[in-house]
Amino acid sequence: MSVVDLDAGLLQAVDRLAAVPSLLIALDFDGTISPVVDSPEAARALPEAADALRRLAALPGTRVALVSGRSLESLERVSDAAADTLLVGSHGVEVRLDGAAELTLTPEERQRADELREALEQAADPFDDVWVEVKPAGSALHTRRATDDVRERAERAASAAAERFAGLTTRRGKNVLEFAVRSETKGQGVERLREVTGADAVLFAGDDVTDEDAFRVLGETDLGLKVGEGDTAAAYRVDDPQSVARVLERLADRRAALNS
C-alpha cells in the first residue's frame, strides 16, 4: 500500500499535524506497528514503521512513545525502543520517561498481584493452548491459540478464580482477559505523556478495545487512528499495521520538509 491508497481526509489531517510546533506520536504496539503473532515474545515492529519512528524522533519538537498493555519489561524487549522513546506499560501502571522507569504499586498491591497470578495459573492449567502472562499489576489470560470452546471454558474458569479478589479491574481485549489490582488506562497514560512533553498535538494509534480510553482523551488538534475493525472513538481508520507505517512515513516526510 502506498500513501495514495490512504483516505484523503486522513492524509490532510496528517499534513496538518506535521506543522505543529510540539508533536507527540503515541502508539500501541501489538496489532498497530507490529502484526499480531501467536507468540507475544516474537512480535516485532514492521521495519518501515520502526524506520519512520526513528526519523520522527530525530526531528525538532517531536517525541515518540509506545503505550501498551504489556509489562514495561516485555515492551522494552520486543520493541527494542531507543533510549529516548517514552514508554507506558501495563496500561499506565509502569512508565519510562527519559530513561527513568517508575512502578507505582504499593507492597500490598504487589502481594495481591502475586496471589492473583497463582490463582489464574491454577485456573488455566487444565486447558490446552492458553497461557497466563504475568504483569506487575496483575495477570492476563491469553487464548489466541485456543479453540472457541476452550477459550470460553478457560475464561469462565479464570473469571471464577478472580472473583476471590475484591476490587479488581477487568479488561477484555482481542483473545485476552486481564485482571489487575490497579485501575489505570491508556487514556491516563496518554494524558501524562502530553503533560510531560508539553505537546501541542498528539497522534495516537491503536487496534484494541483498551485503546479506546486513549482515543476518548484526544482533542480537536489531535489525531486518533483506529487499526482494523470495531466501534471506535477515533476519527480515522486504517486496515492494518502496514497502513500505520504508511501514515508514519507520510508524517515523517512532511515534518522533515517543514524543518529543512
TrEMBL record:
<keyword id="KW-0479">Metal-binding</keyword>
<dbReference type="InterPro" id="IPR006379">
    <property type="entry name" value="HAD-SF_hydro_IIB"/>
</dbReference>
<comment type="similarity">
    <text>Belongs to the trehalose phosphatase family.</text>
</comment>
<comment type="pathway">
    <text>Glycan biosynthesis; trehalose biosynthesis.</text>
</comment>
<dbReference type="InterPro" id="IPR023214">
    <property type="entry name" value="HAD_sf"/>
</dbReference>
<dbReference type="GO" id="GO:0004805">
    <property type="term" value="F:trehalose-phosphatase activity"/>
</dbReference>
<keyword id="KW-0378">Hydrolase</keyword>
<dbReference type="Pfam" id="PF02358">
    <property type="entry name" value="Trehalose_PPase"/>
</dbReference>
<protein>
    <recommendedName>
        <fullName>Trehalose 6-phosphate phosphatase</fullName>
        <ecNumber>3.1.3.12</ecNumber>
    </recommendedName>
</protein>
<keyword id="KW-0460">Magnesium</keyword>
<comment type="function">
    <text>Removes the phosphate from trehalose 6-phosphate to produce free trehalose.</text>
</comment>
<dbReference type="InterPro" id="IPR003337">
    <property type="entry name" value="Trehalose_PPase"/>
</dbReference>
<dbReference type="InterPro" id="IPR044651">
    <property type="entry name" value="OTSB-like"/>
</dbReference>
<dbReference type="InterPro" id="IPR036412">
    <property type="entry name" value="HAD-like_sf"/>
</dbReference>
